[in-house]
Design a protein that fits this description.
322 residues, alpha/beta, Inosine-uridine Nucleoside N-ribohydrolase, Chain A, eight-stranded mixed sheet, two-stranded antiparallel ribbon, 10 strands, 16% strand, globular, glycosidase, hydrolase, IUNH, uridine nucleosidase activity
Length: 322
């Protein structure tokens, strides 16, 4: 049975690859895509999501725009990593369709409530603003969601600050709500995603797929490589967000351990830190988990396999979502 997911994202180079993986892998049933301000402003990341969907021929899936700012803090973007558009590098197609006339938070709530309890997984790969708002607006979804598999946080250190990872740091109050809501949360953080390096061998395998979407991913990685080398000193860029989707597809690709995790919101230097207690066995009934180990080869096999299945799609007017 394919895993039903809602992908909440802020494309973003790695969000784009996460969307392609979710679309192209038969282990995923993509129910909806929602966008949130993060890597760039909400209009930019929403357009990017629609352009990637057009490129990949994603049909029958509603896309909705969500929160354009954090719950309490000023908005922040990651132009040093993702560029002015949020997807600098490749040429993006004009979107062939538009978002639905529903706020992302309402689409998340409605989609969860429309499916059997325990069947919908939320996969946020940006700030957790939309997910927190959904949990607060309709708390009944918490017990219906199968789990939340998020890209964000870290057990050890951060990337926006020494203590905090970008997605959590830009809206720590939202993250505090999500981690503390009571549903199962899997934190796919920097400890794991920094293992997901797009090495030259990986890029050769992607180019060998030989399709337009595969070339698009290689062009994404070309830009990503240069920006990560300049900003953070990586020789090969870490590709964070598809790791969360990969864990949903095959949990053995991303090894996790149960551990209590709380989000720091008050620290002068540590706001956004995901404080993870690995001092001993997790208490019985622990609902939070930290990802620690990636099977690099199998992870990239999932990505290249999804690109191969996507092939060379074409999106006709009759196929566009309503």
């Amino acid at each position: 049975m394919a895993e039903k997911i809602i992908l909440d994202c802020d494309p973003g180079h790695d969000d784009a690859i996460a969307l392609l993986l979710a679309h192209g892998d038969p282990g995923i049933e993509l129910l909806a895509v929602t966008t949130v301000a993060g890597n760039q402003t909400l209009p930019k990341v929403t357009r990017n999501a629609l352009s990637v969907a057009t490129l990949a021929g994603i049909t029958g899936v509603p896309f909705a725009a969500g929160a354009d700012r954090p719950l309490l803090r000023a908005a922040a973007v990651a132009a040093d990593i993702h560029g002015d558009t949020g997807l600098d590098g490749p040429e993006l197609p004009e979107p062939a369709f538009d978002v639905v006339d529903t706020h992302a938070v309402d689409l998340i709530i409605d989609t969860v409530l429309a499916h059997e309890p325990g069947t919908v997984t939320l996969v946020p790969t940006g700030a957790l603003t939309n997910i927190a708002l959904a949990a607060r607006r309709a708390p009944e979804i918490v017990e219906r969601v199968r789990r939340v598999v998020l890209m964000g946080g870290a057990v050890h250190g951060g990337n926006l600050t020494p203590a905090a990872e970008f997605n959590i740091a830009i809206d720590p109050e939202a993250a505090e709500i999500v981690f503390g809501a009571g549903w199962e949360v899997v934190m796919v953080g920097l400890d794991l995603t920094h293992q997901a390096l797009a090495t030259p061998e990986v890029r050769r395998a992607i180019r060998a797929v030989g399709t337009g979407p595969a070339r698009f991913v290689d062009e994404l990685l070309e830009f990503f490589e240069h920006s990560y080398r300049a900003a953070q000193g990586f020789d090969a860029p870490p590709v964070h967000d598809p790791c969360a989707v990969a864990h949903v597809i095959d949990p053995t690709v991303v090894r996790t351990v149960p551990a209590p995790i709380v989000v720091e919101t008050a620290g002068r230097y540590t706001a956004g830190m995901t404080v993870t207690d690995l001092r001993g066995p997790a208490p019985q009934g622990c609902r939070t988990h930290a990802a620690l180990e990636l099977d690099h080869g199998r992870f990239w096999d999932l990505v290249t396999g999804a690109l191969a299945r996507i092939g060379e799609p074409s999106l006709t007017a009759s196929e566009r979502p309503a």
